[in-house]
Each structure stands twice: as structure tokens, then as C-alpha cells.
Amino acid sequence: MSYRVCFVCTGNICRSPMAESVFRARTVEAGLDGLVEVDSAGTGGWHEGDGADPRAVSVLEESGYESSHTARQFQPSWFSRIDLVVALDAGHLKALLRLARTPEEAAKVHLLRSYDPAAGDDLDVPDPYYGGMDGFKECLEMVEAASEGLLAAVREQVEVEAV
Questions:
Q1: H or E segment at 36?
Q2: CB 72 within 8 A of CB 48
Q3: How far apart are alpha carbons 162 and 145 in whole angstroms?
Q4: Which residues contact 15 (CB under 8 A, 6 or more apart)?
Q5: What angle do CA 121, 127, 132 make, to 5 degrees?
Q6: Given CA atoms 46, 50, 54, 58 in this order, what sign does their dihedral have?
Q7: Strands of 109-111's sheet, edge to edge?
Q8: CB atoms within 10 A of CB 134
Q9: Enzyme catalytic residues
Q10: Tens digits of per-residue pLDDT, 140-156?
């Protein structure tokens, strides 16, 4: 049985697809690709069916990441099949906690940058949508920095489930 991780941002066209692509690559590098499923969604459905923002695609591809993606909205029923829901900022965290129907579902929700010890108290990944390419590059750097700690936490859970 796979351990399922879902990254969530606002519209599922910038931050969460970037996090999904980076983390999927990390799980493959770590030899966990058959054990961990990686996905993403948005808190809203404005972009459902759309691809990732072209600037996100460009930054991902420049860095060697896969960039195929179709946006969709996170549904409360998904909590039952997802092991870890990773919010990209405090607003997403609050929205997801409102959708959680039980304390067990709420306990699955965490901020991405909480896995980056260097992040300090600044745990939000800023939305690059209304800015230029620099914002997308900064977003990618933050996602990459947090992915190592997240991978360690997920690997620990996968190993516990395997026992």
C-alpha cells in the first residue's frame, strides 16, 4: 500500500504543482517511487482542468523536473485516502483544517516549510502568480529546501508502515 502525499495551494497552478514535481523527483531519487504517491490540488476550483502556469513549467523544466499537470480542487473526501496533506501557506492550512471533519483528518495537514529547519518562523511559500519569474524561482528554492526534511519524514512513515 502506498503512502499518499498531496500538496495544496490556492488554484493548483503554481506552488503545489511545483512542490508535487520536486517531491516526486525526490521520492524517485530515494527509491521510494513505488511506495509513495505524490499529488497536488488547490483550495479553490478556479483553474480546474488547466495546466500549470507557464512560468512554473518553465522554472521546473529549467531545473530538470517533470512538469505535466492538470489543476483540480481538493475535496474533503480525499482525507480518507491521503496520508499527508501539505499546505503551501497559512491560508491553505486554515482552509484545509476547516475541511477536515475529524481530529485525525486535521492531524494530516502540515505546512511545507515546517520541514525546512532554515525557514525559522517564516513558513509561508509566497504566491508567485502576480509577479515575475524571480518569484517562481524563489518558490522553487523554498520547495527544494523543504523537500529534504519532508522526504525524511515520509521515509520514516513508509518504514513504519512496512514493519
A1: strand 36-42
A2: yes
A3: 27
A4: 7, 9, 88, 89, 125, 127, 128, 139, 143
A5: 125
A6: positive
A7: 36-42, 3-9, 84-87, 109-111
A8: 10
A9: 9, 15, 127
A10: 999 999 999 999 999 99
What is the domain range of residue 97?
3-162
16, 8 contact by CB (below 8 A):
yes
Q: Is 153 helix (H, G, I), strand (E, B) or coil?
A: helix
Identify the H or E element spanning 147.
helix 133-162
Question: How many domains are contained in the chain?
Answer: 1
The residue count of the chain comes to 163
Mean pLDDT of 101-123: 97
Q: Residue type for 79, please?
A: F
CATH of the domain at 94: 3.40.50.2300
